[in-house]
Amino acid sequence: MPHLTRTTRGAASTEVRIGFGVPGFAHPLIAPIEWAELARPGTPLKWVVLNVANGPGERPDPHCLEAAGRLRNAGVRVLGHLDTMYGARPFGELISDAHRYLDWYLVDGFRLDRCPSGRAALPEVRRTVTTLRALVDDAHIVLGHGTHPHPGYAETGDELVTFAGPWSDYRWSQVAEWTADHPPERFCHLVHGVPRGHLDEALRIARWQGASTIYFTDRVDGAGAGDPWESLPGYWDDIVSRVGTGVSE
């Protein structure tokens, strides 16, 4: 299988300690069980994205503030969702949204969704990230490429989402060689449509490819199914028990 042809990470790759990065549930009024579940003690969470309305929304939302507060009180990073539109979103709009997230929800950092991955866009992404870091002490920045970007992005974000897509693609995916120069804590994989019977295989792929942040769900995308990230996977308790409570930071 292609994902097992990579040998540069060696045996240590199987010892990668996995934790969850949650790309964002539906609004807390629509998905109250999901948001409550994330605050359960012992869940190996690294971060959770708060996406109010493809961003912070037009005004503070008390339900989102309460949900974010419970997570932060439990020691979980809450990240604001900033849609870069693959580099088409103006710098000023992104920073304005960031200020709203900080003022209204006290977020710990940001996920730049639909982040461009090419070399030409790197200076503008660096500009945005540098400005975001100036706004938040110890900000955690996740660059949501969804694919392997130019290696220069690894020096910009704290984590890179190097895969976001369906299980049918993930199970045959290959990792870029340059990722071996960085620790697993720098990479995240988000995979939908993962059948329960393939959870162990999916976790092996993440470890072999050197990604210590994951989110796997059996929810699917398209055909009127909605956003696959909006609700918990049907096997949430199962995957939590497989990952365990230990998260390497």
Fill in the keyword field for this structure.
18% strand, 28% helix, disordered N terminus, alpha/beta, 8-stranded parallel β-barrel
Write up what this structure looks like.
With 249 residues, the chain is an alpha/beta fold. 28% of the residues lie in helices and 18% in strands. It is built from 7 helices and 8 strands; from the N terminus they run βαβαβαβαββαβαβα. It has helices at 32-38, 62-73, 91-105, 122-135, 167-170, 199-208, 236-243, and strands spanning 19-22, 45-50, 77-83, 109-113, 140-144, 159-166, 187-192, 213-216. Strands 1-2-3-4-5-6-7-8 form an 8-stranded parallel β-barrel, surrounded by 4 helices. The relative contact order is 0.17.
Layout of SSEs?
Elements: E1 19-22, H1 32-38, E2 45-50, H2 62-73, E3 77-83, H3 91-105, E4 109-113, H4 122-135, E5 140-144, E6 159-166, H5 167-170, E7 187-192, H6 199-208, E8 213-216, H7 236-243
Parallel strand pairs: 1-2, 1-8, 2-3, 3-4, 4-5, 5-6, 6-7, 7-8
Give start-end ranges of low-pLDDT stretches. Answer: 1-14, 245-249
Distance between the termini: 30 Å
Helix percentage:
25-40%
In DSSP terms (H or I, runs of 4 or more residues), the helix count works out at 7
Order of helices and strands: EHEHEHEHEEHEHEH
Mean pLDDT across residues: 91
Shape: globular
What oligomeric state do the depicted chains represent? single chain
Estimate what percentage of residues fall within beta strands. 15-25%
